[in-house]
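Weekly puzzle thread! Below is a chain. First person to post its structure in token form gets bragging rights.
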Amino acid sequence: MNNNNQNQECCPKFNVEKWDKQTLTWNNKKFIKDTIPEFFHIPFPPMIGKKISRMWTAVEKSGAAAPNKEDTLILFRDPTPFKGEIYISVEKDVPTENNVVISGNFVSRFFDGGYNAIPKFIKVMDEYLAETGKKAKDYYIHYAYCPKCAQKFGNNYLILFAKI
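Winning reply:
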């Protein structure tokens, strides 16, 4: 690997203020969706990279990417212990993909930590929501950085979206 590739920005710098303790309303927000096998909610890491790369290539080919890379959300959801879902936000439908929309009210919080800390983050989110009389119906997670960028920036930021 040469130094030019090492210094290229893969993931944009994360803006904490944009996402922390925000209330969002999504009305038919467009995404493409795929599934990934998991073993008791633990995804197989090589599969994640392959799925996201394939999905992102389709997004770029179709011209459906957000104008600013930092506005793109890659969300993860675990509906069962053996199947995860990956969503990539898009500006328009992608002909070769499973196009879906997500609607609802969400509260977002940012956290810094690894995948294994998510149950703790959900507990913190539930306590935060309870302070205002709200309760989560579902959760989506956006990791701000890929593993290489997390190491580069020294943080493993994620956004936890609670559908309320």
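Puzzle host: Confirmed. Bonus trivia for everyone else. The beta strands are 22-39, 42-43, 74-80, 83-89, 98-112, 138-143, 157-163.
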